[in-house]
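Write out the bound-state structure for 6-O-phosphono-beta-D-fructofuranose.
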Amino acid sequence: MAELPTFLSARDVGSFAYLTIKDRMPQILTKAIDTLHRHKSEFFEKHGEEGVEAEKKAISLLSKLRNELQTDKPIILLVDKCVDTDIWNQYLEYQQSLLSESDGKPRWFFSSWLFVECYMYRRIHEAIIQSPPIHDFDVFKESKDENFFESQESIAMLCSYLQQLPRPLKDLEENQLKDELFKLLQVSLWGNKCDLSLSGGESSSQKTNVISSLEDLKPFIIVNDMECLWSLLSKCKKTSEKAAVVRVDIVLDNSGFELITDLILADFLLSSELATEIHFHGKMIPWFVSDVTVHDFNWTIEQVKHSNHELMSTCGVNWENYIKIGRWIYHDHIFWTLPHSYCAMPQVASDLYAELQKACLIFFKGDLNYRKLAGDRKWGFTVPFHQALSGFHPAPLCSIRTLKAELQVGLRPGQAEQLMASEPTWLTTGKFGVFQFDGPL
Ligand SMILES: O=P(O)(O)OC[C@H]1O[C@](O)(CO)[C@@H](O)[C@@H]1O
Ligand SMILES: [Mn+2]
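---
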């Protein structure tokens, strides 16, 4: 078998991986430290002196982590006792085994970018859980919620759009159904521009009317497999008249505006009867600043339900009901916050792989999911997506992602060169997006 390309890494000085580790990651740690500082009196009110001591401990652990990163110290084993600690430590040993003797230990600016970036978020978690009684504090919660509140107008607009579609949706004429599906898929794509990790934790909310921007944004979709999604979903719908379940899974990315766009899409899939069940997958610990945890998921639905905006609150009521009747199912699994590429899933998390195999279609939202799908390796731009997945084929799948890392496969010959010439930063600003499908139709 041909050798796999090497991992993206900060070893390439000046690369996006290098700049992320050098600038963005310390900035995120500083912001986390600052958040803890600002909550000092809240910790005191809740837990007395013990709360203040815990805040100091968490801050000192995070400062130590920032120092290790900035001085390129060896990556050290985790010391907590969580369900995933051993798997993490084994993975660290595996990273060590990839190095030759003269390379020494895995280090921040030397190892794989995916590994060290995931490791930083896992160490942030370790610092917090080692600091009881504030062990369940989410240092990123505030910024996630801010993103939600700052996007209120766009959220209300999207909810109104969905509620005002001609009902019942299942009676829409085929072409109209397809057209609406494509619109809401694109809304979910551009929702991925709003992550907080790329902006170093700074606000990145949505303030414009997304639906009316879709036409202008179309030229920025550089791989567009939406037709495959339509073929697959309409075929599933036809067969579902006999079979009972058409299951669509959404591997979520960010909370705030992006999550709303995913929930709107999920609602549309159910109401139009293109799917009968939606399974969401979120993170078990705070992750890459803005990623959805179960708390964010429940909080968001509560907020939408209690909105003063009538059509928004109708959405919230419906969403809560979908959960109650079991047509929306939320899952979390430690695998999503491990550093492994998805091709390792059958070995590392066979239960999750078996769960995903039940889906008719899986959407993977966002940039980090794309990196893990493609193993965060330096693939050529024209390498087929199927090949970059390296054997990960649980069910037909589609990445819905705006580009925020120097990694893209499945382009036409010459396409990358053209993009590079017209827009040198095309890979990393989130301005371009893909719907990239893999699977039999
Ligand atoms: O929320 P997303 O779309 O997965 O993006 C996460 C971001 O974090 C990064 O991993 C860099 O910190 C980028 O790849 C990406 O910009
Ligand atoms: Mn994210």
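---
The domain at 141-438 is CATH 3.40.50.10880 (Rossmann fold).
Residues 20, 24, 117, 192, 195, 197-198, 253-254, 288, 366-368, 371, 404-405 surround 6-O-phosphono-beta-D-fructofuranose (ligand 1) (CB under 6 Å).
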